[in-house]
């Protein structure tokens, strides 16, 4: 006798397939979640490591900035000390400058020329005085040109004395001191009133 299967086998197969599909879908979702979680953990660890490196670099940069500021301060101090040493060296080399200038002027001024004023500003000298003749002033200019300390003599003017009886001419002459740099407030020669030679 033949058996007829009256059970709903198609429904049971469909349910079995749905059950397998849901199991597979659930497994895929769990695997995807685990994969995303693992990738997220890896990238979070990398980001944390990079942030730690960044913090370390920032702290080292701050230390280097402080050292750079100290180096700049030291460089400024060094520059200041070099300027002071240069100024001291200039003062040392020009400490007898006033005496040397007076000696050179005394040797350059010939007989018959009388100085009434001598001013020094930096390396510039101003001589004001009286002369018996223009030839004597020419001799004085030649002597100044041949001097080892004085240079660039320039005669600003010569004028006859205002007193008609006087035979002396008034003159104004400019000179420069060579071989010495101008030192601020270093040494000034006070005006000398009176004659020289």
TrEMBL record:
Keyword presence, Membrane: yes
Coiled coil, from the record: 54-84
Highest taxon, organism lineage: Bacteria
InterPro entries according to UniProt: Extracell_DNA_Util/SecSys_Comp, PilN
Alphabetically ordered keywords of this record: Coiled coil, Membrane, Transmembrane, Transmembrane helix
One BP annotation, GO: type IV pilus-dependent motility
Residue ranges crossing the lipid bilayer per the database entry: 21-43
Protein name: Type IV pilus assembly protein PilN
Species this chain originates from: Rheinheimera nanhaiensis E407-8
């Amino acid at each position: 006798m033949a058996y007829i299967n009256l059970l709903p086998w198609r429904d049971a197969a469909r349910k079995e397939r749905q059950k397998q599909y849901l199991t597979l879908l659930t497994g895929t979702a769990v695997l995807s979640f685990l994969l995303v979680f693992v990738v997220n953990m890896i990238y979070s660890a990398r980001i944390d490591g990079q942030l730690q490196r960044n913090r370390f670099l920032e702290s080292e940069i701050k230390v280097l900035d402080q050292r750079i500021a100290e180096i700049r301060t030291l460089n400024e101090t060094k520059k200041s000390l070099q300027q002071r040493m240069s100024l001291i060296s200039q003062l040392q080399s020009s400490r007898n400058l006033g005496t040397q200038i007076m000696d050179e002027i005394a040797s350059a001024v010939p007989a018959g020329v009388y100085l009434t004023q001598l001013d020094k500003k930096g390396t510039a000298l101003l001589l004001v005085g009286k002369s018996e003749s223009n030839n004597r002033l020419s001799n004085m200019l030649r002597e100044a040109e041949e001097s080892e300390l004085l240079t660039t003599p320039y005669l600003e003017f010569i004028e006859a004395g205002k007193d008609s009886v006087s035979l002396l001419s008034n003159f104004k002459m400019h000179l420069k001191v060579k071989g010495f740099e101008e030192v601020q407030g270093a040494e000034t020669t006070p005006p000398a009133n009176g004659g020289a030679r």
